[in-house]
Amino acid sequence: MKKAGTKKSVRKKLSVWHYLKNRDTILATISVFLIMGLLALIPINTHILDPFKLALHDFNYNDLVYSKMGKNKNTSIDTNIVVVNIADAGRLEIAQMIQKSYDAKAKVIGVDVLFKVAKDPSADSVLNNTFNTKNNVVMAYNLYEDHSIFKPEGYFFNQAKNKGYANFVGEEEGVIRYFKPEVAYGNLNYLSFASAIVKVANPITFDQLSHRRKDFEIINYRKSSAKYLVVSGEKLINGEISTSILTNKIVLLGYVGKNEKDIEDKHYTPLNAVFTGRGVPDMNGIFIHANIISMAIDDAYVHQTPNWINWTIAFLLCWIHIAFFIKYSLEGHIWFHLKAKLVSLTMAVLFVYLGLWFFYYFDTQINMTLTLAAVILALDVLYFYESFALWLHKNWGFKTVFHHDVH
Amino acid sequence: MMYIRIVVSISFFILGFSSSWASEKMPQYVVYQVIGKCSKVALKKVSLLKKGDFLNTPDVVNLAEGSTLILICANYKAFQLNVKGKYAVSTFKKYCAKSDGSFTANYFRFVWDELTHPHSSPEVEPEKYMKTAGAVTRGQEKYNLSIRTDTINMYDGDFGIRFTITKEPATVKFFASINPFKILVSQQSKDFISFLAFAKTQPQPGVYYWYINELPYKKSNLHVLNVLNEKQYKTTVAQILSKVIGNNDADRAFMGGFLLEQEHFLGEAQKYYKLGLSLNPESKINQRLSRIFSESGSVL
Question: Record's superkingdom (chain B) (predicted)?
Fold first, then answer.
């Protein structure tokens, strides 16, 4: 980098604070954000040329908090929720499991099974009656989009008193990190399965969830599937299990995989040890719903910093970086280029660490992407800014700390 | 300049080689559906087309006014003709191309699509990313077979197995081969598959296929029929039955039926279950027997 003064001159060493106040530092910092804005405005997706972006598609560094740093690894067993494993049970058996749970005075019974079409008339009749008459039974259904119109899909949809869509938010075959508490479409309002269960189990908690007015919620995976009590539906029907364990509990009827290789209704979650690329799905849908429900009941939502905070952090950190870079480039540091690159890399690692630290300890996600982008771009933009400032100096007498001499 | 010429020459050579290699893979066709009047001219003989007929490159197809002909290519692509006229089968290759361009064209199409199609994310438009339902399905299948096995070993076909279906009646088809498709028997049924009609075609030992109501190119829905010769069949059945133990004839018959069912000899299993039932009419096996098997006979 070129600097002020002649080749032989030794520049007086100034404090970083001096450079922070310097006009070039501020203008270079603004340039970084202008370049970021310009890149964002390009109407093509440059990621096609970025193998890292393609390889890390659907990657979120916050997943590392669960999969590598063991967030929530030592949480206790959930005592509010009991999962009843329906295994390969048919509709009639499922109806019997609901009845058993109902007789045991469960607080709410969530049936995480999709009944898309008619099947056996007698079993359908029993189920229909169950969903239609029992106030504490919540039925799951599939909500699908057809030409931008949301439509519910479920054979008992119209008859069911309480119902919720079982859909999560995420890429197809991707990691499930979010859920949408409700979908409003025209005059219609569809509740998610977890929201509908919370509404029956604890209306005050449901009000809190509704008042958050979030377009989507980040699922706080506080409990792995091992942290939920699972009972066999078959044994429940056969009377081999005392139904008292279901009394006053949130009972979720769903499919629990027979083993690790059984991937029916299994999804990728941030708990997956393989956090990039393709591993084996790690969590049954019923446990994801359970995590959402317990998150709402325990008021353990994941918070996100507002965008203005993310931008402010990015600007401040970029500003400090530029000040350091200008200081060391001008003060005759022969190793400047190498050191600046190393500093950028080190800072990138540090910022990710800070982001993860906040999430780990405070359930708060800070979007450090802006900061990372700004810091990584800072050095290259500074080179450009220097040339531009020198051109302005030569043609318009623009005052700058940079000089044509090369160090 | 010389360098550019060499590169261009190599490119043309590669493209030419690719296309000539592709053209050698002549597709075969099977008639999937005929509506109206369609005929083919093969070796100067005119014949009306019907489901399951083959068409080869030298043949010519005639479509009458208002007719529709649906054909399946060897690579499972299907296409239809519905305009009156005469068609040389040799011109159908274009309908069977798996992709619409060369390797190079497809690559640049991918690049173009990636560059131009709008990218979003679950965080920005969550409602667009709600295609994953966290629940299992009960009752989505168009049909439910009474058996879990994918393969049935048989020699004669005097048995039937049950199924339930949401749309009645179902069409059950038996194939001699799937590439190209060669349909041996097509039958309609409400609730059971009779293997008798298939057996009456006197199939030679080998592998055959059958499916219910699904398009044939869905390979996952194909079921396998392993037709054995008489000697091999009887030897294997005898080996299976040699493991049978029990306190009385009825028990032994039930166990024989169970072991044969496990080894996919369903016809023979049915016989032993029936035998056991005749010896012990009180047995609960009667429920199992009626749930899985149906009496063979005429179909609808």
Answer: Bacteria
